[in-house]
Structure to design on (822 residues):
């Protein structure tokens, strides 16, 4: 059989192929020749054939038929064969294939080989694709090589030990004696791999972390030598001595100093030296500075050192490299809540980043700008952000408008400024605002009694001839209908009044009704506004009647129904029309974030408790409750009470013992099953039947302290309590879920179960997304009926998605305050 072509010739031939089909034909032909050679057990050219097969594998063609040939090369005594064999094993084999176990004995022999390069090949292969079985069998040989004096083998053994620990964490203690002298090594390769090994051990074991904290002075000394050492051609990168080792040491110091005062104190000085002595003109220096900043922010460092770190990030914002600017903005966003005043000093630079052409930098700058807004800079920051809203891409407008609304609500210096700002947003990006923007602005206008004439005049001017921004048109229509008499009378004191007649006002509203840009909702606002004006205008009532009657035959069912009902008001109930259409009273603010909203003060004032309002109770589906019963069993657990009376589901049984540990949650002997006629939490059957002079919740319940029911992985669940006046046995619990991580938690579901002597009703949550950085909360109301006044205990289940992973957790809440159930 003729000798097969060399690898170099194969590469040259494949590169001459003009089409994919031609290349595929060449590969298939060569694969056939290689298979024939393998079948004939050709030992002479096996190495050459496997090398060619690996090249084809790198091009994406199947090469699995060469796996056993790699094992034969590994078993060869020639170094060139072993090298190709081990390379093939790393590329073609993994722990999912049983073939790799056949290598264990060969690797063990080669780890004890007399040649260091053969030992190095075996260490590389084990560290690359060794399974947990192989790691258990060969950990002893790796530990032995970790103690050798040969620096070439020690650095490879350290990296192999990292892989062994990842696969079999319980073998970690085996390598502990070998780590004692690793940091005394002069060879930078061994030092680097040793730091990687120590980092892995500290991250995986709290005991190891406590053990290695005594190495902080030694690590500080190594880092100081690197900074102060002169030029070393072996390790110099752009004028900096071994930046890779410096970065690794800084990361290890960050882990060792976290939540430890003594370790943090020991490394403060060296971190200051690194921050001040590192050259920033090259990217290498910036990498070390960035790692230094992360370490300073993560340990218990001095305040002056934290300011220095934030100033470094501020200098990064002036760098021409977009990646460095992005990294700086992301880091500042993480630290703005803890070091707000230091970040404020760089506000002008951050605002300048809003003009950057890179969209990712622009988004980070926008998020950071909103985090910097407070009562002192609200006017200047809003001016910049409104300018940004005018010129930014459409994908930014929704988030920017939402951020401006929130900031204006928290820090508005005056009601007029607040109204002007919201109107400016609606004029600029009305089609991008959230659904609640319209009712929120209407509520703000209603409550600003002295601004009614000014607001209706501004809104009238804003929509003259332009109906493209539908939310703005809806607010304008509502205000014209409510305060049209003020518009016509020209009583505005804040600016020069305009002269408008009743017919001109109706012309505007009628043009909104017939405009092609108007949505069905906007037309409803306009028709209702026209109807309200029938009690505010005197000369145009007949015109209003005519307009309303026309829409009684509209093809839009919603509009038609409104018109028919309004026509009935004119005819059958005309004596009630003025009372029904009278001006809206001042609306009370109902907080969307629960009874106590933690105000993001941005370094200004303390959090302020907001007035508590009972959330509305509406029909609640029972499927979620029944899912929870499936999880918790049913023996001792009460189902969630639906709003409409339903029969109690039967017990599921069985799983309760596993979940609750075979305990009686009531702390008393098991009670008899509840009777069929379970008292329900009463619901008013009609809208007006629920109105009474008695307040719904007991004012004395304000003294019930809130509790933290759950705090884990950045998710925090707090319970606040109220007692019902209509039924003293009912406790109303409002949960608040907040998220302190850097990413939103989506698809959030809260479920709860109580012992059978209680009854529980779970109302709908305010949202399914828990915003990052504690920028908002989800609220949900639980009503618990406790007729026997027993101590309350609850089992909760939390499910959500975070960082692309589905999360689920169970917890038991036993620390309810006595006032909540006695």
């Amino acid at each position: 059989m003729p000798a097969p072509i060399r690898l170099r010739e194969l590469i040259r031939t494949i590169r001459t192929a003009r089409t994919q089909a031609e290349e595929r034909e060449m590969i298939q032909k060569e694969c056939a020749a290689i298979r024939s050679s393998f079948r004939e057990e050709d030992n002479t050219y096996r190495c050459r054939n496997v090398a060619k097969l690996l090249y084809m594998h790198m091009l994406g063609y199947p090469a699995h038929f060469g796996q056993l040939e790699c094992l034969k090369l590994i078993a060869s005594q020639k170094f060139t064969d072993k090298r190709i064999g081990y390379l093939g094993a790393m590329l073609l084999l993994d722990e999912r294939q049983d073939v790799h176990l056949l290598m264990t004995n060969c690797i063990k022999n080669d780890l004890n080989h007399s040649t260091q390069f053969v030992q190095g090949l075996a260490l590389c292969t084990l560290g690359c694709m060794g399974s947990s079985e192989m790691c258990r069998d060969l950990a002893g040989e790796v530990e032995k090589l970790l103690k050798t004096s040969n620096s070439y083998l020690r650095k490879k053994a350290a990296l192999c030990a990292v892989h062994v620990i990842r696969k079999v964490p319980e073998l970690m203690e085996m390598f502990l004696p070998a780590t004692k002298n690793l940091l005394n090594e002069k060879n930078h390769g061994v030092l680097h791999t040793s730091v990687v090994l120590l980092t892995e051990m500290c991250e995986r074991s709290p005991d190891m972390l406590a053990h290695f904290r005594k190495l902080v002075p030694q690590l500080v000394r190594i880092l100081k030598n690197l900074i102060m050492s002169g030029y070393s051609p072996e390790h110099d990168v752009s004028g900096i001595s071994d930046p890779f080792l410096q970065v690794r040491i800084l990361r290890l110091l960050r882990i060792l100093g976290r939540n430890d005062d003594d370790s943090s104190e020991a490394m403060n000085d060296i971190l200051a030296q690194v921050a001040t002595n590192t050259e920033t003109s090259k990217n290498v220096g910036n990498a070390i500075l960035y790692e230094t900043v992360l370490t300073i922010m993560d340990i218990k460092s001095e305040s002056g050192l934290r300011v220095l770190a934030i100033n470094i990030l501020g200098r990064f914002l002036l760098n021409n490299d977009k990646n460095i600017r992005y990294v700086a903005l992301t880091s500042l966003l993480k630290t703005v809540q803890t070091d707000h005043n230091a970040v404020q000093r760089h506000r002008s630079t951050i605002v300048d980043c809003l003009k950057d052409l890179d969209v990712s930098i622009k988004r980070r700058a926008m998020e950071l700008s909103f985090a910097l807004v407070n009562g002192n800079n609200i006017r200047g920051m809003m001016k910049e952000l409104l300018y940004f809203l005018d010129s930014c891409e459409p994908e930014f407008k929704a988030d920017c408008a939402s951020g401006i609304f929130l900031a204006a609500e928290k820090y508005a210096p005056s009601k007029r400024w607040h109204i002007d700002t919201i109107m400016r947003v609606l004029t600029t990006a009305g089609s991008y605002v959230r659904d609640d923007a319209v009712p929120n602005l209407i509520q703000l206008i209603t409550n600003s009694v002295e601004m009614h004439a000014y607001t209706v005049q501004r809104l009238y001017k804003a929509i003259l001839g332009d109906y493209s921004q539908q939310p703005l048109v809806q607010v304008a229509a509502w205000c014209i209908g409510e305060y049209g008499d003020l518009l016509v009378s020209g009583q505005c004191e804040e600016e020069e009044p305009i002269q408008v007649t009743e017919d001109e006002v109706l012309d505007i509203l009628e043009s909104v009704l017939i405009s092609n840009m108007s949505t069905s909702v906007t037309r409803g606002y306009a028709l209702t506004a026209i109807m309200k004006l029938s009690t505010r205008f005197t000369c145009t009532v007949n015109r209003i009647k005519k307009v309303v009657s026309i829409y009684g035959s509209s093809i839009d069912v919603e509009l038609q129904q409104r018109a028919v009902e309004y026509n009935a008001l004119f005819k059958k109930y005309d004596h009630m029309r003025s009372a029904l259409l009278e001006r809206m009273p001042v609306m009370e603010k109902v907080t969307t974030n629960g009874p106590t909203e933690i105000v993001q003060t941005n370094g200004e004032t303390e959090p302020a408790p907001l007035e508590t309002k009972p959330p509305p109770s509406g029909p609640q589906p029972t499927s979620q409750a029944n899912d929870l019963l499936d999880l918790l069993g049913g023996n001792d657990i009460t189902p969630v009470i639906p709003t409409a009376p339903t029969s109690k589901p039967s017990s599921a049984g069985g799983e309760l013992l596993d979940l609750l540990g075979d305990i009686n949650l009531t702390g008393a002997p098991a009670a008899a099953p509840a009777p069929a006629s379970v008292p329900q939490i009463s619901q008013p059957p009609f809208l007006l039947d629920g109105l009474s002079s008695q307040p719904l919740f007991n004012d004395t319940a304000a003294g019930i302290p809130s509790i933290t029911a759950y705090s884990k992985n950045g998710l925090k669940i707090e319970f606040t309590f109220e007692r019902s006046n209509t039924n003293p046995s009912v406790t109303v619990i409002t949960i608040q879920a907040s998220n302190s991580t850097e990413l939103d938690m989506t698809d959030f579901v809260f479920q709860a179960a109580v012992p059978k002597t209680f009854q529980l009703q779970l109302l709908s949550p305010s949202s399914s997304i828990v915003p990052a950085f504690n920028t908002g909360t989800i609220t949900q109301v639980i009503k618990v009926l406790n007729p026997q006044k027993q101590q309350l205990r609850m089992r909760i289940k939390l499910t959500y998605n975070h960082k692309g992973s589905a999360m689920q957790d169970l917890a038991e809440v036993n620390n309810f305050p006595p006032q909540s159930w006695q």
In short: The chain has 33 helices and eleven strands. The two ends are 95 Å apart (CA to CA). Confidence is low (pLDDT under 50) at residues 591-601, 604-701. Residues 20-39 form the longest helix (20 residues).
